[in-house]
Amino acid sequence: MHEGGYGQYCPISRAVEVLGERWSLLIVRDMLCGYTRFNDLARGNPGLSRSLLTKRLRQLELAGVVERLDGEYVLTPAGQDLRPVVFGLGEWGAKWQFGDPADNELDPELLLWWVHDRLDFSSLPDRRIVFEFRFRGEPRRFWIVRDTSGPSLCTHDPGFDVDVVIDADLSVLYQVWLGRLPIRSALKGGTVELHGASALVRRIPEVFLLSPVAPFVAEHR
């Protein structure tokens, strides 16, 4: 019996011994979405302390799910094989456990951290692009800047001219991100507003890609 294990010779119990610790599956989720740096994994899980993240990554390494390569964390073949498991849980959650969000689940910085890496800038000019996000009832503002190094999320004014201001209800933008509400419906209803040059504003619905789990949520909304 593994220390702290279930004492059952069963592949399900063995899998739960590896993945059942708090945060472990969310770390794997983020790695499946392409995050490999420690700081990125920490930023994508703001309720997870850095010391516990270190511990969980070490446990996943010892289990053969994760390995370190040039200072980054990458999934092994065993880790990559978790893709249908993790997204299968997402599909099950969307069908059976997903209702309206609780207030403590709405985090503007976390949402934009997820969003910033899922933007398709291919239809926009090949130059620095700056989006400013303003959430109603939220005093903080946020910026996503795309330049030659790629997109980045800023929590302080980067000092560049803003191309498009996105003014939104936070819960609505979550619903858009997760596929519960089409962005054009949110724009039509005024719960999301866009301000900027009309040629750029018209392209914004195509720029915003959705969460990897959005197809499951949309199917069961």
Quick structural summary:
This protein is α+β, with helices and mostly antiparallel strands and 221 residues long. It has helices spanning 11-19, 24-32, 38-43, 50-62, 77-80, 83-96, 108-116, 170-177, 183-189, 198-201, 204-207, 214-220, and strands at 66-69, 72-75, 129-135, 141-147, 150-154, 164-168, 192-196. Strands 5-4-3-6-7 form a 5-stranded mixed β-sheet. The protein has a two-stranded antiparallel sheet with strand order 1-2.
Overall description:
This protein has helices at 11-19, 24-32, 38-43, 50-62, 77-80, 83-96, 108-116, 170-177, 183-189, 198-201, 204-207, 214-220; strands spanning 66-69, 72-75, 129-135, 141-147, 150-154, 164-168, 192-196. With 221 residues, the protein is an alpha+beta fold. The chain folds into 2 domains: 11-81, Winged helix-like DNA-binding domain superfamily/Winged helix DNA-binding domain (Arc Repressor Mutant, subunit A, Orthogonal Bundle); 103-220, Nonspecific Lipid-transfer Protein, Chain A (2-Layer Sandwich). Strands 5-4-3-6-7 form a 5-stranded mixed beta sheet. Helix 6 packs parallel to helix 12 (214-220). It is globular, with a radius of gyration of 19 Å.
Descriptive terms for the model:
alpha+beta, 221 residues, globular, two-stranded antiparallel sheet, Arc Repressor Mutant, subunit A, Nonspecific Lipid-transfer Protein, Chain A
